[in-house]
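Attaching the record inline, Q. Sequence:
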Amino acid sequence: MAIALTDRDTIIDFEATLDRYRRYGSDLANRFEDGVFSKVIPTPKGPCLIAVQQVDGRIEMEMKPGVRAVEPDQSVSAVALDAARKVLGLGFPLRAFYDFASQDPVLASSVERHHGLRPNLQVDPFEMIVASITAQQINLRFAYTVRGRLVAEYGEISQINGEPYYAFPAPERLADLNPGDLLPLQFSRQKERYILNLARAVCSGEIDLAGLAEKDDTTVQRELTALVGIGRWTADWFLARYLGRGNVLAAGDLAVKRSIERHYFDGARVSEEQVRDFAVRWGDFTNLAVQYLLADYGSGGT
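Structure, as predicted:
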C-alpha cells in the first residue's frame, strides 16, 4: 500500500531534489532510477526497502520487506516515514525561506532557477560520516565510485522481488576489518584508518551518533572532532546533511566558498572566517541559502 508523503500544495521539485543521487554516478545504497528512489533501511523488524516516487502530483512511498523481514507494522512504518521525509528534505521551511530570500536579489534569483529544490538529509549518521570521510580532498565522482565499492563489498544484500538491494555497511561489519582490507577499493590508508576507527568507536559506545541529534551544535562539533580524522569540515556537513540544522555553514568547503565568492564578492578570494561572518545575515536560513547557491555553482555538497 502506498503512503502519501506530500499533497498538491507541498513545494517540491521531485527530480531536482533527488538528482544528487545520480549526478556523480550510481549510488548502490541510495538508488534513484527511472523516477523511483529506493533505499534499504534497518527497522525494528528487519531490513525494509522504501520506494519513493511521484504519482499524480503527489509523492508516495511504498515499503517492501526483504526476505528476512516480516511484513511492515506500525513500528516499521514510523521508521520508513522518517527516512523518506529526510531523503526529501520535507522538514525544511521552504515557504518561509522563499519569503526571506525575496529580500536578497542573489537568493531570489537562485530560488527562481531552482524553485522546489529541497536539500536531502542522510538517513543514517554513520553513513553520513563515512560519506564525508570518503569525499575528503577528492572529487565527488571518484568519491561516489569508491563508496559504491564499499557498499558492494560489505553492505548487506536484501533480495526483494527477485532483485538485490544493498544496505550501507553497518558499523559492526566494518569494525571487524583489518588494516589493508579497504585498500583494494582505492581507499587511502589514512581514510581507511578514519573509517575503521569510527566504526569501532560506534560499536564500543565511545560515541553515540544518533544521540547527537539531542545536542547543540557546539557539542556535536566537539564530540565529532574528538575522533581521529574528523575535523570541522566533516562536523559542519554532519550538522547540515544529517541533523538539518538551519544556521550551519560548511565554510571550509571549497565549493561553498567559491559559490559565495562568486555570488557576493565578484569572484574575489576571501577567508573561511570572512565567509562565516558574511553568512551570519542568513541566520536560521543559512543551510538553505548555501544549498541554493551550491545548486547555482553546480555542486550539491558531499
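The CA atoms of residues 25 and 141 lie 7 Å apart. Strands lie at 3-4, 31-33, 36-41, 48-55, 58-65, 157-160, 163-166.

More tomorrow.
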